[in-house]
Write a structure and sequence with these properties.
Blueprint: H1 3-16, E1 26-36, H2 51-61, E2 66-71, E3 74-80, E4 83-87, E5 93-97, H3 103-121, E6 125-128, H4 147-155, H5 162-168, E7 171-176, H6 181-201, E8 207-208, E9 211-212, H7 218-224, E10 231-232, H8 244-253, E11 258-261, E12 264-267, H9 273-278, H10 287-294, E13 298-299, E14 301-303, E15 307-313, H11 319-331, H12 334-350, H13 361-372, H14 377-391, H15 401-404, H16 412-423, H17 425-432
Parallel strand pairs: 10-13
Antiparallel strand pairs: 1-5, 1-6, 1-7, 2-3, 3-4, 4-5, 7-15, 8-9, 11-12, 14-15
Helix pairs in contact: 1-8, 2-3, 6-12, 6-13, 11-14, 12-13, 16-17
Length: 464
């Protein structure tokens, strides 16, 4: 396949993904760690009462709500009416909602998932939202029985911290629709611009390999030190006019771990995507094979049939729904989207001679704060929350309230470690665990003119 045909193959996929603005939806991909309550050690896939048994128990207890997905006679996921359960390489359990335009619908879907899975865990396990395994080392965690993961794990051997990413980390991804190429470029610019603030203010990985980590984001460190694959920011996306072709050129330059040909997984051996596609004919690639190519790069903001914002650690409920609300209020509101693009222009206009590299998160955060006229990232986060609040309808603004706690200077992991020092191990169980009776289940009746008022509750926010 020639270069122009490669670009057409990929850009056509993005054009087919365009949505009417009235039909914009957003989605959540929420990864969890399943941990032993008394030690916070990982519950592994193969052990008695492990991840596979939990999925089977979930199917049994929930009746017809979930159907198992098998690979090589193993249960490796579940399909339901409101979403999907999949497993990451170290047994991290991901729930992906069906995309929806209404946050309350996503909230209900997630709460329904919790209602089904929590009884399957028993009293000795918890479903934890943490950016990295708090107790177990990755060497103690077996790899999941999936062909894709076996290939990836072999490819990543000796390539920085890639194995830590595969087995130890857990994330919260948000998916965002776009209307056309211009809308796509503006949203890519805004989302990439705010990546350093997400790393800075929503860090929820208090531990790394069983050791306390107070410093910078574990997730950021892992992806920075993950070699042999395309990661980090896309600097060109921060300029005006970022196009479908620009992203697809980025894809074609990227090292390719795996690809599919007529539905079968093949090794890309780290050659560029362009090199691999040169050897193929367009007719040899099914639609699902093209989709697979888009999943084989890992930038902070990835494009598939939507924008996927990938920089956030897993956050406990209801913080996770608040994080969706944060992005909806910013990127689906025209005034806020315009503001963020103008902020991006000011950021680089004031930073004369500044050239951004894919992993220059700290440098971007510094010039972004200067352009915003603030000294601390928590103040910028506060301003962004205010803007998001104004960009949401009155009924959805309540979902932002759990995030308000973080505007007082405390990252989720700081709250966790402070509670650990004051209250002991059981406080971490509380910190990482979802609370079905807490905020997010009720809508407030405040007026649209109301501004945010900071709540002073603990990590498991009980505001209603």
């Amino acid at each position: 396949m020639k270069k122009r045909a490669q670009l057409k193959l990929l850009t056509d996929r993005l054009r087919r993904a365009e949505k009417e603005r009235s039909k914009f939806r957003l989605g959540m991909e929420m990864e969890h760690l399943v941990l032993k309550r008394n030690s916070l050690e990982a519950v592994t896939y193969y052990e008695d009462g492990g991840i596979e048994d939990i999925l089977a128990q979930m199917v049994q207890l929930s009746g017809s709500n979930w159907k198992p997905v098998h690979e090589e006679n193993h249960v490796i996921g579940l399909e339901g009416e409101r979403g999907y359960v999949t497993l990451e390489p170290g047994g991290q359990l991901e729930f992906s909602t069906e995309p929806g335009g209404d946050l309350s619908r996503i909230d209900r879907a997630y709460r329904s998932f919790l209602s089904d899975i929590l009884p399957s865990l028993g009293e000795d396990k918890i479903l934890a939202a943490s950016g990295f395994q708090p107790s177990s080392a990755i060497e103690e965690i077996p790899l999941l029985p999936k062909e894709r993961y076996a290939h990836m794990y072999q490819y990543f051997d000796g390539k920085g911290l890639a194995h830590y990413m595969m087995k130890g980390s857990a994330a919260l991804h948000v998916t965002i629709d776009f209307a056309d190429e211009r809308d796509y470029g503006r949203k890519m610019k805004a989302a990439n611009l705010l990546v350093p603030i997400i790393y800075s203010r929503l860090d929820n990985a208090p531990f790394f390999q069983g050791q306390v980590r107070r410093g910078n984001s574990v997730r950021r460190k892992i992806w920075t030190d993950c070699t042999g694959v395309q990661t980090g920011l896309i600097p060109k996306a921060l300029a005006d006019g970022f196009s479908y072709e620009d992203y697809c050129q980025f894809l074609l330059r990227s090292p390719l771990i795996l690809f599919k040909r007529k539905g079968e997984i093949r090794s890309g051996e780290g050659r560029s995507m362009a090199e691999v596609l040169t050897e193929l004919k367009r007719g040899e690639l099914k639609e699902e094979d093209v989709e697979y190519l888009f999943s084989m790069v890992f930038p902070e903001v990835r494009t598939r049939g939507y924008l996927e914002i990938r920089s956030c650690d897993s956050l406990p409920y209801p913080y996770n729904i608040g994080y969706l609300a944060f992005w909806k209020g910013l990127l689906y509101d025209e005034e806020n989207l315009r503001f963020l693009n103008q902020l991006g222009d000011r950021t680089f206009a004031q930073a004369e001679g500044f050239e951004l590299a894919p992993h220059d998160h700290s440098a971007l955060e510094k010039v972004l704060k200067q352009a915003s006229g603030v000294e601390e990232s928590e103040e910028l986060f506060r301003q962004l929350l205010e803007r998001s609040f104004q960009g949401l309808g009155a009924r959805e603004r309540t979902y932002l309230r759990p995030l308000e706690r973080l505007t007082r200077g405390g990252r989720p992991k700081d709250l966790a470690l402070d509670r650990l020092a004051a209250e002991g191990l059981e406080s971490l169980v509380d910190h990482f665990s979802p609370r079905l009776s807490k905020a997010g289940s009720k809508q407030n009746d405040r007026s649209e003119k109301q501004s945010l008022s900071l709540c002073s509750c603990c990590c498991s926010c009980s505001c209603s």
